[in-house]
What does this fold into?
Amino acid sequence: MVQTIKCKKCGAEIEISEALTHQLQEKIKETLQAEHKKELEVLRREIEEKAAEDFRQEVERSKKLAKQVDELLDELRALRRKDAERELEMKKKLLEEEEKIRLEAFKKAEEEHRLKDFEKDKKLSDALKQVEELKAKIEQGSMQTQGEVLELELEARLKQEFPMDFISEIKKGQRGADVLQEVVDKLSRKCGTILWESKNAKWSESWIAKLKEDQRAAKADLAVLVSVDLPKDVETFNYINGVWVVSWKNFVPLALALRFNLVSLYHERQSQTGQEQKMQILYQYLTGPEFRHRIEAIVEAFSNMQEELEREKRWFSLKWSRQEKEIRKVIDQTHAMYGDMQGVIGKSLPEIKTLSLPDVE
It folds into this structure.
């Protein structure tokens, strides 16, 4: 009879021999599984250790690579910095060279300009020197001519302003001044004489003494020196040592005042003949400051009127000049417009005689 037992695990009826075999197999299986499990655990540990080692090595390599990358980056930054420094240094050197070249060019141009200026100044100085020499020669050669022209102008102006008086020229070579004016009133009565001397040269004090001698020789009542150049303290006219000194611009107003007073003095003498004392008073008045102040007032009024007239003349002259320019501009623009239209239209444009050019044979 075959003996059986139940399997504790599966509950199957198993023969004892089979059970032993089965148990043995199970035990072997368990042993093998344990060993396999142990091997698997060892293998797992080895794999983990190897993976850890690989990871550690990979990390180490990564660290080395990162360090190398950082070192390369540092080197690259250093190279870039050096390149930037070299570029900056090159730019600086270029700027320095450019500035040096510019300064050298500026110095060269300045030196050339200075030499040209020096040459120009030298030529100008030589030209001015020649002009001055020529001017001196001309002035030296024409001094007498200028004096004669001024004398003729003085005589002409006196004749123009006082046609009733007797204006006579003192002949050349004869001792005396330039012009003698015999003042007459409306009844042609001689009221006095004025001796005129004209000068167109640098002022000299000796002129007054000479004119006083000429006045005594000519027995003239008054002596007037008309000079282009006046003493420092005289702007228009002044009574200096018995001689009236006046500028060329103001001699006519002074002549009016002196003539008026000579006529008045003559009439006063005629009405008071024999009154020596009053004549002395009149003479003192004639040579005193009050008389001079009255003459200054008359001359000032006349000069103001003359300046006002000159300003009006200049104003009207400018006005007419501006109007003439505007009219000329309108005429020129009209001619230009007519010419443009002729160029476009041609002969079809009606002819305007005032704008057409004359035929030229």
